[in-house]
Task: structure prediction
Amino acid sequence: MIDYIVAAVTALLLIAGAFFALAAAIGLVRLPDLYTRMHSASKAGTVGSGLLLLAAGLYSEDPAILARAIAGFVFFLLTAPVSAHLLARAAHRSGYDLGALSVRDDIRDR
Amino acid sequence: MITPAAIVAVASSAALVILGLALILTVWRVVAGPTLPDRILALDMLTGIAIGFIAVIAVKTGFSLYIDIAISLGLVGFLATVAFARFVLSRGNIKSKPPATAANGNTQKRRAGGKKR
Result:
């Protein structure tokens, strides 16, 4: 019985993580400029790979490996906003414009 | 009767297909992306998809050592993105280019066929 529960949760996490990654990729292609693409890539993309990692940790049924998978997920959650913010700040400071649909730019004069 | 291994095998195959689709879309953004930061962002996303692939392969094959590889790949991807961001910053403002060096560099860039933006 417990095997079926673990398998079902693992399958659910695998499919959910893959769909999060697909949503991030679709956002990366469809959104109009760098600063909006960053939303999909750094939020949905991180959750996608994190859920897949969690599925791998859960399916091994070993607490040490599950702990490593959770540590990796937390590591991604910590580093993705940092790298996205650094890239956005560098791009904005180097003069890459916002898309034509954007209506205001709060850090233009800083 | 469906065994647990069969459920996970079907789910991991489906996840591989969906991740492949995501990989193709992201590679298209790397190739087409009009500016350099777009490409850097797409490369960061590619690292995330590669981590997902490694995790799915870990589930499929049962080698849980792959998770450590995924974590170290995440570290490398983070450092690469930070380094690229510093590079974008160190190139300076793209709108105020000195004309003398730009004229010199333009011929070289055009011969290489690269889009400089």
Notes: Chain A has three helices and no strands. Chain A touches chain B through 58 residues (CB under 8 Å). Residues 1-94 of chain A form one domain.
